[in-house]
## 1
Amino acid sequence: MQEFLDELDGPVFVGEAEKLEMRSMATSVASVESTASLSTDLFYDILRRLDGPTLATAACTCAAFCSISREERLWENVCSSMWPSTNREDVKSLIASIGGFRKFYADCFPLIVNKEVSEYHWNKYLEYPEEWTEAEYYGDMDEFETISPSDFVSIVDIRYKDKAICSKVLWGIPNANGFNGWFYNCPFRIDILTTYAARDDDGEGEVTLSVSDGLPPIFSMEKERKDGKLWKELRDGLRLSWIVVNKKMKQAANLASWSPLGGQRHWPTDKDFVIRFGSVLPAKDILPCQVVECILSMKFRVVHTEEEGVQTTLKLTELSMQLEDMEGAHVNGRNSLLILKEALSCHRSKNYSEVLESCHLYSKVQSELKEEKMRSESRLDRLCILSGIAAFITFCYCIL
């Protein structure tokens, strides 16, 4: 139990002031327990008001708190507060089948950190996808046959300034039926909104953000392009959680970076804002590059502005996942399933700075690889030009 609590202690998503306040309250109650006999119901009522990291901290203060903190109902409250999609009855049944809410929170609260990125060196592996053999690219077929797309469940939640604005649950992977289908050899991609729009039984409306949600008013797109106030508010206020669960393996992991890793205005209209989240996933013994980037893209479009009323409305038009290797090539469906399987058991950390460091290191190594590739191509081009000149001179010499 202590090891579990240590893993959860130290919030990634909770403010320091709130953390100190909750810790103080937990310690105070523990002191009261030593001088007076308080009922278990009172302890439970106190603990049910705490967030996950503070609940784990409180459990370390006394034996009574430690015992009560094992209650699944407490962790169900924590999960539903952080991930509203876990309030669904089908998701509750799924979480119960893979070990319960306490285990689910311990698996999905820390974020994925890949410390093996620094071990990648471009010259240790085959440089270009066209040089990979079929066996190297497609991986172990025997292992792949044990993986079914229907085993995976995506639990997605979006927040803006601590307000839940979107919750989606996707059972299985769309268009992945049949082991010999096109999915396994084509670029892997999951588009949550497209999938939901295609469902006849989907009663959920569009996901929008407006001034009432805390967006700054846009007086004109030209002014917005200059000051970038709306873009800054989106970048600082949006939070994404994309949890992948494997029902067969009974494992789960959060593939998102919680906060945006980057973004841009989408050419050519300047009315689209693309925000990128993600993580670096291990691909050892799956792809020659050993690591891949899980890219989670969110696109908002300005659909309504009124200068007189100073109103702004943004519509969520894209929410997708795809995997790219070091070369920037999209990973196919077959290898993506293998990588997702490995991601469910890879290293994680509650320290958000480690998460950012891992992603920035990947970008650095990827940039170095591209630069080296460009230098190699430049040397090859010069060699071809010199060879052509030499051949031309030789030809002229023979004729003369």
## 2
Amino acid sequence: MENRNNITMFILLGLSQNKNIEILCFVLVLFCYLAIWVGNLLIMISITCSQLIEQPMYFFLNYLSLSDLCYTSTVTPKLMTDLLSERKTISYSNCMTQLFILHFLGGVEIFILTGMAYDRYVAICKPLHYTIIMSRQRCNAIITACCTGAFIHSASQFLLTIFLPFCGPNEIDHYFCDVYPLLKLACTDTRRIGLLVIVNSGLIALLTFVILMVSYFLILYTIMTYPAESRTKALSTCSSHITVVVLFFVPVLFIYIRPATTFPEDKVFALFYTIIAPMFNPLIYTLRNMEMKNALRKVWCHRLFLEGRELILKAFQNFTLGFYPEP
């Protein structure tokens, strides 16, 4: 504990040391962050303000969009600030807080994707029992289980890191605080802790990924017997989910399933699950989903119609008052 107090601040090396590349990265990250907010807010408002919120799949999608927003906001604002700063620093306490929140929200996202796969499995493989199995109580229980599992995972990662002694150097070769870069800086033997991190992060991600792929294999096997129209709709929905799963899980597995080592490529792969996947999720779920597109059209066209009508009425009232002024 005494050694650990020697380090009160970490220096983040960020994405690049070249200022021109950093400015370019800032523009790209800013664009992605705005797209994440606009896309996910559109989905959340459209689902909440329509009948889709009653359907379990969109109930989970609403929470997935919320977790995407919170998850990327844990990293992206700090990254954009650092890209314009000469000195990129983060305090010890903020570093540990970021690590805990990042793994908690990442765990929530992984488990929600699992819940969505379970929902599709029940809908396609057990359609007659779907409304009974996927009741609102069951959906709320799944969300509670997702948050509980994510908290256990994140607390484990946090406890493995918080007691590490740091006595220098204090440069983290990353753009946010994560376990492996911190293990590299610890002035103690971290091999056992590295194995625990692999079990806690890598194996959980791998097991979840295998479960998801098996569930979608069973779904695809089942829909082969469906009529052509129903098969197309089920394939469209499942392909959207599979795309999201691959975008998120492949980079996570690349980083966490191996021994506790860091590579320069880790930062590029981390961009996929912290920024790229949350940006593409709204596009994937809306462009390939007719119900979602209809909900967007109804909610936003209706709002634009009401606002337009109010503007026209006000303009007409002002126009008539010009000819018939009030006494």
